[in-house]
Amino acid sequence: MNNFYLAVLDIGKTNKKVLIYDQNLKMVVSTYKTFEQIDHGDFLSDDLEAIYEWFLSSLKNFAQQYAIQAISISAHGATFVAVDEKGNLTIPEICYTTEPGEDFHEEFYQEFGQAEALQKATATPNFMALLNVSKGIFYAKKHFPEAFNATRYFLNLPQYFSFRLTGVASAEPTYVGCHSYLWNFEKNTWSDVAHQLGIMDKLPDKIVKSWEVIGSILPEVASTTGLSSNVKVNPGLHDSNASLLPYLIKMKEPFILNSTGTWCVVMKEAEQVQFSPDELGKVVFYNLNVFNKPVKTAIFLAGLEFETYTDILKNLNKDHDFPEYDHELYQQIIENGNEFILPGVTKGTGQFPDSEARVISGNEIYSLEEIQAGTRYPEFFKNYEYAYAVLILSLAIQTKVALDRTGIQAGMPIFTEGGFRKNDCYNKLLTAFYPQSAVFTTALAEATAFGAAITALAGLTDNNPRNLQHLISIETRQMDAVKFTKLENYTKKFMSYI
To answer: Of 17, 154, 204, 477, whose Cβ has the fewest other Cβ atoms within 10 Å?
Structure first.
């Protein structure tokens, strides 16, 4: 086979990207764009047609220089698309940020089973808004009954784009098994919820491997882009599982991946689905990875909390540089044991779904709302470095809870990727909580797209992704371990307030 290239469409919640990789999985070029959402009044939609047209246009530009032979898609979770036989939308795509109200959630659980029972059966927690795909489909069924009946396929977001490219409807494990309520992990088949929704005749016929070639691009796609009609397409996969894939291939021993961004997603491969009583009702769940194995997962909105409070601190102090790590300062805060920033900026999510976002300073309590309004704020917020350190302590403690719930064991390495891999303060604190575990930050660029590129190459060359280990390099940096006195006391007090 002559030199060839792989194309990846990476659909983030904010940025949409097209990336080109060579046959050795080296990224050679990329482009990205943001798109305005469509406002339907009660909900928002992504402009899927505009995204698809931009994707084809980008492919056309890249095809002039690169002999693209395979395409894969990675996409954010909790999104389905209802289409007819030709891929036309029958129902607008409904963004998972849509909040239908408590009555809707209560009706859902009355119809399909109580939340904790469904968490046990489908490894899926009760999320806010429409972060459970089944809730999104139930919402569509209630609001668009005629269009619901006229729908030929309910496709997950990556598979919508692979369907547009090939005309082949497909489903694969990483998306159907990601907090959807649609998958029964024990029986390894569609769940009772899928049957009760009345969509079994509207789902793809079978579950294919994430790297399996489902077909070649359609003649009209080849004509529009200038690509060969022999370009192969796989079904596409869920973004967190795409970023996990390189580690699953490279690491010989058990590990935990701490994938950070707006969401902090802590993942550990598991042998079986099992919840402790404390985990039921929390945002603890299991994904399926590309090898169809369960991945225990705990998440919280670390990036959103970080941005919310650092914006407040920057505006208050007119300071825009993030402070460097100061061990004595963190020790001082821990010994004082009087200042805490508590979750959660978005109530009903994360590891403490009942927690009210607030700040404690001594005997005073300040709500996030009054701090944002500028009516009241704690005195220590005027000290930018000090308040920033209190925030990082909060995020590190929340991460510890997620790591513990995911099943970290003594000596198990922790890898931080994504936005927080650049935050030494945060990662050093993790070493203090886990003195027997090495904490690494990674320099894996565009991890989600890279994982998708691996599946594209595996499908094209008819390989199991594990056979591509020699092409995968993950650059890591081990954090120097730090120790604090009274850290356990500070953590217990933090937890007692929650």
So the answer is: 477
**How far apart, in whole angstroms, are the C-alpha atoms of residue 59 and residue 72?**
12
Of 446, 427, 448, 449, give the one whose Cα is nearest residue 438: 427
List of residues 6+ apart from 220 with CB closer than 8 A: none
Q: Decide: 97 and 144 in contact? Cβ < 8 Å.
A: no
Distance, CA of 156 to CA of 158 (rounded, Å): 6
What is the CB-side half-sphere exposure of residue 375 using CA atoms within 13 A?
6
258 and 404 in contact (C-beta within 8 Å)? no
**Lookup: tokens for 68:** 């693209």
The answer to whether residues 197 and 135 touch, using CB atoms and an 8 Å cutoff, is no
Question: What pLDDT does 321 receive?
Answer: 86
User: Is the CA virtual torsion 468, 469, 470, 475 positive or negative?
Assistant: positive
Of 174, 284, 334, which Cα lies nearest the Cα of 240? 174
* Crossing angle of the two packed helices 384-406 and 487-497, in degrees rounded to 10: 80
Which pair of tokens denotes residue 428?
């050093």
Instruction: Give tens-digit pLDDT for 176-201.
Output: 999 999 999 999 999 999 999 999 99
